[in-house]
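Example 4.3 (complexes with small molecules)
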Amino acid sequence: MRIAVLSGAGISAESGVPTFRDDKNGLWARFDPYELSSTRGWAEHPERVWAWYLWRHHLVQRVQPNDGHRAVAAWGNHPGVTDVAVITQNVDNLHERAGSAAVHHLHGSLFEFRCDSCGSRYTGPLQDVDEPTLELTPPVCALCAGLIRPSIVWFGEPLPERPWQAAVDAVSIADVLVVVGTSGLVYPAAGLPDIALSRGAVVIEVNPEATPLSGTATVTIRESASTALPTLLERLPVLLGG
Ligand code: BV8
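Answer. The structure with BV8 bound is encoded below.
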């Protein structure tokens, strides 16, 4: 059985990583996250955007993967499972730290940085933030003096070709697609389950809340990721009415 997983911020919520909309951290609560993670937000307030990402970079390093991430990483050893492809909208590295090998980051990563002008990868020093700071000056590129930015896909930016194609390929051959912890509002990622459904693959949604996918998913499990995922494969026969 080939499994594909599409995860969103909800799978990391139980690790203590605020979801995209629910980050009530005082400093940025008054800013619209869609504004902060957009090309316009970066153009207008690079110091504010840089400080927000560095704070999130700091937070993720101090939390651990949870039972949901670990369950997904263990599915590759499950009898009958021949392949597990992890597609994530998240910019944290918790799937990797839980042991998942092939993780396709559709929206980039908090741990990769590049020059906003010449695109060259940045591996230089970062300010170490222990407290949330509202503004920090981004480093400058040694090659062209452009601003260093996180290698994250902002609203209005195209998704990176390789992870996107890998995601489309994975949902095009999967027998089961598990969609976990995403509100299913952000495109083109939110269109991936439709590809699986159009082929007759089983699509299982794991989310305590209803989403636009709930009406079309084969099975909807109203549970948290760390509750549902560890026993999901064992429950498949019952879930699918076998
Ligand atoms: C693009 C990085 C084109 C930033 C993010 C139609 C087609 C194509 C594009 C569009 C379209 N319509 C509109 C667009 C534009 C836009 C878009 O989709 N807008 C939305 C708002 C309508 N899309 C784009 O701009 C994309 N680019 O299309 O480019 C293009 C082509 C060529 C040339 C130029 C341009 C780029 C989108 C990527 C944006 N970047 N992330 C960052 O993270 O800082 S998206 C960001 O928001 C997250 O990654 C996440 O994917 C999304 C939503 O965040 P959250 O709500 O926090 O998380 P999530 O949605 O996952 O919801 C949490 C869920 O978890 C909830 O349902 C909750 O119930 C559940 N949950 C909570 N706890 C648990 C749980 N579940 C399980 N267990 C729990 N314990």
